[in-house]
């Protein structure tokens, strides 16, 4: 059964929210986007409203008339414990008031280290990090809202993402921006460990599928990702596509700690370094079996990302 009509409301105009918008507009859906400013670079037919999404009254107003609500907000990295749960709680209220499905995007922090075992959706939430704990509690809150009958919820989980519009990510500007300029890519942890990276347009498509399909409700799904390679191999492909000789600079933990003394968002990345110090391989076979595997091949995805960064660089010049 699919949901083909109605208004689709996206909370968040970052790379994930914009990729959801891309997918929905391609399918001819009506879209309203929600952010703090009320401004975003979107097609004319897409409505944008501004306000404080942590205010339940505003979120109810912004969600009015929706058949599906997408939660793709992400507060500053160093403000997660205080800002993230209230944002989600208010967006749940908006979806409940509208009688809409709620599709939330999550990362994989709630699992904690797996000693290199592949990440599957049935892993326990065993995170010992501050942000992993926040993620686990928020995910449990979403499932409680679904199981109690208050809301109809589906969760899509993605790994570190890359692609057009993605700047602040482990595979963002420090890799692609520097590759197109011929500078050394900066990565954290051990670049020779396998690491799954997710292409942001694939995230948008996956979330829209979850919003359309009734069988998606009531659980979390790992969204399709390209084939897993080591971070070094990933970076080498990016440089190949950029037509530059590959150069990579890996920052050890001691260096990150020193820089983090003066940079709170960077300091927050240090507790997540375990993801780059052991194999971090995401299994999306449940999604593929149920809905099909739409993962973009890795070289194609990296090539598209390099082209976006190159266009951005020429536009800045």
UniProtKB/TrEMBL annotation:
Domain NAD(P)-binding, chain residue ranges per copy: 12-108
| Secretion signal span | none
Q: Which Pfam families did the record assign?
A: NAD_binding_10
Record's InterPro entries?
Answer: NAD(P)-bd_dom, NAD(P)-bd_dom_sf
Record-given protein name: NAD(P)H-binding protein
Identify the taxonomic lineage of the organism of origin: Bacteria, Bacillati, Actinomycetota, Rubrobacteria, Rubrobacterales
